[in-house]
Amino acid sequence: MRKMFRGAAALATAVVAVIALSGSVEAKPADAWAGCPDGAVCIYPQNQNPAVKPTHVFYSYGAHNLSNQFGNHWVLNNQYGGATANLCTGSGGSGCGSPIAAKTGVYADLTPINSIRLNR
């Protein structure tokens, strides 16, 4: 009887350990893509190839004015749910080019770019 009780206790302990470990795995946050947090749009330093650490990180929808951005930069759209981003030649999100789809990036010359717009 004592052996059976010990066996049941060991089994119960193992089950609790597996459940505890499974819960911690599921709670793990999403990984950043090239240093760009999940849900953000990031701009990287000029000529940083491959993209490693962003200099600009944008989370909020709408237009964000840029300044002193020249030459080629990676722009990664690490948003989800179909959210897009545009590079725009005008300030305040005017004169925008083609949308950058969620979970994609472009290597673009930001010399003529004066703003970036995040769209739902």
Automatic annotation (TrEMBL):
Keywords for the protein's UniProt record, in alphabetical order: Signal
Top-rank lineage group of the source organism: Bacteria
Signal peptide range: 1-27
Protein name as catalogued: Peptidase inhibitor family I36
Species this protein is from: Streptomyces virginiae (Streptomyces cinnamonensis)
Source lineage: Bacteria, Bacillati, Actinomycetota, Actinomycetes, Kitasatosporales
